[in-house]
What we know:
The complex is a heterotrimer. Chain A has helices at 7-12, 33-57, 63-86, 88-125, 150-180, 186-196, 201-213, 228-253, 256-264, 269-297, 301-304, 325-333, 338-365. By secondary structure, chain A is an all-alpha fold. By secondary structure, chain B is an all-alpha fold. Helix content of chain B is 66%, strand content 1%. Chain C has helices at 2-9, 18-29, 83-90, 120-126, 142-146, 148-153, 160-170, 174-177, 190-203, 220-233, 246-252, 275-280, 285-291, and strands at residues 34-35, 45-54, 57-67, 72-76, 100-108, 111-112, 127-130, 156-157, 208-212, 238-242, 255-260, 268-274. In chain C, helix 2 packs across helix 7 (160-170), helix 7 (160-170) crosses helix 9 and helix 9 (190-203) runs parallel beside helix 10 (220-233). By secondary structure, chain C is of the alpha/beta class. Chains in contact: A-B, A-C, B-C. At the A-B interface, helix 3, helix 4, helix 5, helix 6 and helix 7 of A face helix 1, helix 3, helix 4, helix 5 and helix 6 of B.
Amino acid sequence: MTATETPAAQAAATRTPPAPRRRAPRRPREFTTFDVWILLGSLVSAISLNWLIFYRFTVGASFFGFIVGSYLTFLVIFAAVTADRVGRLVATDRVMTVVVVSAAAIVFIPLVLLVGYILVQGLKALRPNFFFNDQAGITPVMPSTSGGGYHAIVGTIEQVGLALIESLPLALAAAVFLNESRSKWRRPVRIFVDAMSGLPSIVAGLFIFAVFILPFAKSGNPLFGYNGFMASLALAITMLPTITRTVEVVLRLVPDGLREASLALGSSRARTVWSVVFPTAKTGMTTAVVLGIARAVGETAPLLFTAFGYDLMNANPFAGSQESLPLFVYRNIRKPDISAIERGFAGALVLLLIVLVLFAIARFFGRDRSKSKKRASRVSFSGLKSTFTPSRSTASPAKEASPS
Amino acid sequence: MSGTLVDENPTDEAPRPEGHVRTKRIVTEVPSAVDRRFNFITMAAGISVLVLLLLVGLFLLIQSSDALGETGIFTFLTRTEWRTDVQPARIGVLGLLTGTVLVALVAIVIAVPFSVFCALAITDYSTAKRRKWMVGVVDLLAAVPSLLFGLWGFLYLSDKIVPISLWLSQNLGFIPLFKTESDASLTGSIFIAGIVVALMVLPIITSVVREVFSQTPPGEKEAALALGGTRWGMIRTVVFPFGKGGIIGGSMLGLGRALGETIAVALLLPQVPQKIGESIHILQNGGATVSGFIANRAGADSFTTSGLLAAGLVLFIITLGTNMIASVVVSKSRSGAGVDI
Amino acid sequence: MTDTQTDVENENDIVDTPEQAASVAKAKSARVEIIGGPPAGASTLVARDACAWFGERLVLEGVDLTMPKGKVTALIGPSGCGKSTFLRLLNRMHELIPGAALDGEILLDGEDIYATGTRAQQIRMRIGMVFQKPNPFPAMSIQENVLAGLKLARLKCDDKDMLVEQSLIRAGLWKEVRDRLDSPGGALSGGQQQRLCIARSLAVHPNVLLMDEPCSALDPTSTRRVEETIDELRDVVTVVIVTHNMQQAQRVSDYCAFFLAEENKPGFVVEHGETDFIFSTPKDSRTLDYVQGRFG
Lengths: 404, 341, 296
């Protein structure tokens, strides 16, 4: 050690005043400007090389092939140059960073394309009269802006509304049963709820058809024929397990300490649930329900066998075939005439907007308004599944692969 | 000890009555009237849900017994054709199942790597702010109704994928799966349907895997970095081994979803049952899935409906099995120990 | 061979017989080559005006400290004074926290580890760290755990078995696990896990070993073993240890630095010097108060 670094000298230096130079916080950067140039250079050379190969030297190449070729070549060039400069270890790391980031981008690109596509196509035919007319008297030669989907919107509202009325109270009560009680029936109920969440929704619709509609075909009773009510039953069967599980997860996220505190104050279990658990989980439950609605709105399959579809306004869900927004889209897309297809797109755009609005509402309710990590309100969409238990707070992902 | 409490030995324990034997008293909660009602109502709800779902399952069975009885279960499960125009009708679910499984497999093979990388991007390659909106975008993807995916796939994406199918059949056509007959149309293929379903299944798998990755013990990650590892090295040594169970579970969940997908495949595939005598060609037009097939036959007669129900029941059992395997695999793994599949 | 004979007499010690003692001594002094790694041997660490921020908040101010090579330097002080933050500055783990920033220089054998273009990964190979909570990799066996550093940094070694043995001996774990090197790393007790982590850090032959309260989660026996390990690491590697336990600091270290932070103010070094001086006749009254247990 040099003279200035002996312990004695250091000890003498302990009480110097703060350093006179200005201190500026900085974050070390590993990816220097030179590295950026390497990245861009590899990209450019890969693209030019592939362009030459695909468009000058060979024939019959596709744009897609060009993109893939460029990407792969870029990775190879970038890896080679980086490995040469800083060694294989760091080169692997950097290449994998590129791969991971591009994979994520590829996941997001289709969403953008899809939304854009529906937007562009839907706007061709979407006019205000869409919200006021039905398909009465529309013929293939009429333009796509004539007619409308009002009957479909009404149908959707009625069917989903009825389904909600049919399934929500039961689902909430069942969720409370699963989480708040100590009965030995919990296990079988949970197993069944889990099992039923795997029921394909088309089978639910087919089931309602086979049990409630087909046997009564000859009797002519409108209640047991194609109508909105039957559709709501099919929707309810699909919604019930989903909402039960999501709400159960939300309830589980409410810390036990709150329940204990309430019981210690002398309240009954019932009152604990009502006055303590529910208010705490309120936002989470709202989010779960809103997401359940958003999901039900987009369901098409169960409606095929139950509401069947109809071109005219039928505001009575208990008698007669009824249209619904997804059905409207589905049926029009499959028609051969262009105007019908465009009209279908208009309906698709409306459907997309409704789902987006519901989604935004759900996220608004579920937003983190406090700093605490554990939130019984954080429910995310992806599938409305009950999920990983509370070492994390987000009751998120999709387990409920309820196929539609 | 009745009467006065006289403390003759202040420092000793209170004297016990003669012959007192310690017995265990089990104390249980006796619910109040309010609670009794509460318990009753919730239990009734739980049991009703159970009964309801049981009834659904039962009725499904009964309703499909018609067609199953006439065809015979074994025949139903092994016959590929579905013809109701002849008497007696010859129906079988194998042709449909093959298509279902193929579409689902294509979807999973494509979706899982992307999902895993996307989940990695969210947990380990992003700032907190970016993480938030990335999660939001994934959730949004899951929110889009499959009808719209089917539409977009059918009317837009399908044509864009055909050149890829062409390239595959020209260059990898020696693999029987990728072979196409000359003049065969390349739209309406299992390959294209698989790609569209992959997009639908991506958000589910990504969400599950992301949750799992985010639970990787930070101490181990720090240790790996402190040893001189790069980020990718840390991911390989710590995150992947930890998240193995979650990745498998998520993939199986996605598989279950892909098996049951209806509307998109109804639009994309011609829904003609797949014969498996000859080899299966996924790049060319053809194929049917159980749900898509059912969807195209709305309003059928009672025998056909019964047959369709039987097919739906078979699909349901398969999906059930997949989900159950998924939950067992996940719960046995390290990352899944807290998981509720 | 008197040393090994006394070793045999002590229970819980690493050898049973003189033959084993001989092989242990041989392993200890063996030179295992690591290809691709940093130059071996202890290094000096010098901090010059080191400062650390978390976002806008300054948490560590103007630390000037020399940690001499081959010696053990202890960082003591009450909790929340920035000792751990400072430690993390030394192996560039501080920058892993989003929003964290720093200023000043940290010189490893004279070169600033924060110079532009220097890779943190290289630095961390030369400056290892043992954490408060033991974190062996549970998916790997004990042997694989010890070699994990080589795998992560892509280093090659000709005699892996000898390296594993040497690292485990140095960490004081060899006798307990020599027969079960293939069993999973997570199946050990807390103290054993921590010693495994030490062995793991030592296997890459670092120049400096940082230890962040390594014994705070351990029982007294394990603590003693770890302290013995630190004692024997002198001259092989420079050790910087953060500890709340003043007696431990006295037992184990050659030099001490006393950190302090007033309420809502950034931490700084009040005084540093040879351990004996700091604990008997420190220059600052605050240091005296702390080492005599009047606060903290």
